[in-house]
UniProtKB/TrEMBL annotation:
UniProt organism field: hydrothermal vent metagenome
Pfam (any one): Aminotran_1_2
Pathway per the UniProt entry: Amino-acid biosynthesis
Name of the top EC class for this enzyme: transferase
InterPro entries linked to this entry: Aminotransferase_I/II_large, HisP_aminotrans, PyrdxlP-dep_Trfase, PyrdxlP-dep_Trfase_major, PyrdxlP-dep_Trfase_small
UniProt KW keywords: Amino-acid biosynthesis, Aminotransferase, Histidine biosynthesis, Pyridoxal phosphate, Transferase
Cofactor(s) the record lists: pyridoxal 5'-phosphate
Domain Aminotransferase class I/classII large: 26-369
Name listed for the protein in its UniProt record: Histidinol-phosphate aminotransferase
Entry's Gene Ontology molecular function annotations: histidinol-phosphate transaminase activity; pyridoxal phosphate binding
EC number(s) stated in the UniProt entry for this protein: 2.6.1.9
Length: 376
């Protein structure tokens, strides 16, 4: 007798394609929303000294307390809700906000899903959206509902509200700004969704360093709002570190199913070091925001493209004359890797997504595009 994969592994898992990350070799990498800048040389020695002193023979602080405090403070998590101090004391700690850290925000999405997963329960997000929401719905045996965005990528509010009413999703994810479209949804519409939802609404602010706007200050005004951040897009994607903030009544439940030591000691040490030098990352984000404007204008010069404004560190465009997949492949041959969204279909028909790189990388991309499109 041998074990049988077709009966042992859940059907929906067998049907999945593994999350595919293309090998970029030594190409110019403008496909994954990474910050193109390294830790500056003059800070590397200090970082390495901290790494050198890290006690990797010991388990790390299981709840990464020092880092949690530093991140919560840096990211502006309001410690309590907007009610007054005396009211709060009168009702105990009920209005308190808490935070939990994850091995990337991906792990936090998974924790939330695991905590609410009951067969038949649903996760809702606007579509197109971040792929991990639907993948994790499948991992945890939940149903995923993608509500199509309008043509201009704003929320289809009648459809959102009707679906919330009909399907009562346990979790709603709103990426703010949205990936892969790059736009911010209207804040008053997000609030309407929070008020309409019976379940939890997670505002995913992965691109906060480039959006410069946030729902974080409103935490605690609603009992079902959570805000998620990550250090990935600000320049520390290799660390795998995300933060989820919201009312303690939810966070304390998620914390029960978090694996102990999920934030390893090298991540804890490095992130604490990075926060001490947060201005370095803020300067990098500011450069990227400036380059985003440069790249937007340069791309908009091509008559073949319809370029969408972005509040993130990437730009979405639609090829209106020509073929997105051909352009993607031709760029690859020129040594520039971007993301081809055309295969996703729907509103992403003929769309390409380009991460903002360094000025040199962005110029190389534009030069390559000129070669490809002007000789076509
Ligand atoms: C990139 C991205 C994340 C980041 O996930 P990490 O696991 O923290 O790297 C989260 N949400 C959205 C919408 C993203 O685009």
């Amino acid at each position: 007798m041998s074990a049988d994969k077709t009966t042992l592994i859940r059907k929906e898992i067998q049907a999945l394609n593994a999350y595919h990350v293309p090998d970029s070799g030594d190409m110019i990498k403008l496909d994954a929303m990474e910050n193109p800048y390294q830790i500056p040389g003059e800070l590397k020695d200090e970082w390495l000294l901290r790494i050198k002193n890290a006690e990797i023979n010991r388990y790390p602080d299981p709840s990464a307390q020092a880092l949690t405090r530093a991140l919560a403070s840096y990211m502006g998590v309001p410690l309590y809700n907007s009610r007054g101090r005396s009211e709060r004391q009168a009702e105990g700690e009920a209005g308190k906000n808490s935070v939990i850290l994850g091995n990337g925000s991906d792990e936090l999405i998974q924790l939330m899903a695991m905590a609410v997963a009951v067969p038949g329960r649903k996760i809702l997000a606007p579509a197109p959206g971040f792929v991990m929401y639907s993948m994790i719905a499948t991992f945890t045996g939940m149903e995923y509902i993608g509500v199509p965005l309008l043509e201009n990528f704003s929320l289809d509010m009648p459809a959102m509200l009707a679906t919330i009413k009909a399907d009562q999703p346990a979790l709603i994810f709103l990426a703010y700004p949205n990936n892969p479209t790059g736009n911010l949804f209207a804040e008053d519409e997000i609030i309407e969704i929070i008020n309409a939802a019976q379940g939890l609404v997670v505002v995913d602010e992965a691109y906060h360093p480039f959006a410069c706007t946030s729902l974080m200050p409103r935490l605690g005004e609603f009992d079902n709002l959570l805000v998620m951040r990550t250090v990935s897009k600000m320049g520390l994607a290799g660390l795998r570190l995300g933060l989820l903030a919201g009312p303690d009544q939810w966070i304390s439940e998620f914390d029960k199913i978090r694996l102990p030591y999920n934030i390893n000691i090298l991540t804890q040490v490095t992130a604490e070091f990075a926060l001490k030098h947060a201005h370095v990352f803020e300067q990098q984000a500011s450069l990227i925001r400036q380059q985003r404007e440069w790249l937007f204008n340069a791309l908009a010069e091509f008559s073949q493209f319809n370029v969408y404004p972005s509040r993130a560190n990437f730009i979405l465009l639609r090829v209106i004359d020509g073929d997105a997949s051909n352009i993607f492949l031709a760029l690859k041959q020129q040594g520039v890797l971007i993301k081809n969204l055309h295969p996703s279909g729907g509103v992403l028909h003929q769309c390409l997504r380009i991460t903002v790189g360094t000025p040199e990388e962005n110029s190389s991309l534009i030069d390559a595009l000129k070669k490809i499109l002007n000789s076509a």
